[in-house]
Amino acid sequence: MSWLCYLLECADGTLYTGITNDLEKRLSAHNAGTGSKYTRSRLPVRLLYSEHHTDRASASRRETALKKLSRAAKLALIANAADRSWTS
């Protein structure tokens, strides 16, 4: 089973980091107000970034690492990923 680590932008401009094994279902849950306590009051949310991991442990470690980054570092990661997708 493939896992993903993802970054969302909330309606108030804040960033949320999480993991899932079903991204579409998780995004729907977030936007329905049942995804997490944090995003519930900051709807709607939109996906900015995601990356695949082979297992839950790997995705959890990456989630922890991303949560430790500054907002600027997270935005740079998102911008870098967007730049790579245009050149691929």
Kindly describe this structure.
It is a single chain. This protein is α+β, with helices and mostly antiparallel strands. Helices cover 49% and strands 26% of the residues. It has one domain: 3-Layer(aba) Sandwich (GIY-YIG endonuclease), CATH 3.40.1440. It has a three-stranded antiparallel beta sheet, with helices on both faces. The protein starts with a strand and ends with a helix.
Question: SSE layout and pairings?
Answer:
Blueprint: E1 3-10, E2 15-20, H1 23-31, H2 37-40, E3 45-53, H3 56-68, H4 71-87
Task: Provide a concise account of the structure shown.
The chain is of the alpha+beta class and 88 residues long.
Q: Please identify the top-level CATH class.
A: Alpha Beta
Spell the H/E element sequence: EEHHEHH
Number of extended strands: 3
- Give me the CATH superfamily: GIY-YIG endonuclease
From the 3D coordinates, which CATH architecture would you assign?
A: 3-Layer(aba) Sandwich
CATH fold type: GIY-YIG endonuclease
Total number of distinct structural domains: 1
Strand arrangement in the largest pleated sheet: 2-1-3
The N- to C-terminal Cα distance equals 26 Å
Low-confidence stretches: none
Mean pLDDT: 93
Residues in helices, as a percent range: 40-55%
Radius of gyration: 13 Å
Shape: globular
Major sheet characteristics: 3 strands, antiparallel
Helical/strand content category: alpha+beta
Number of helices in the DSSP assignment: 4
Approximately how much beta-strand content do the residues carry? 25-35%
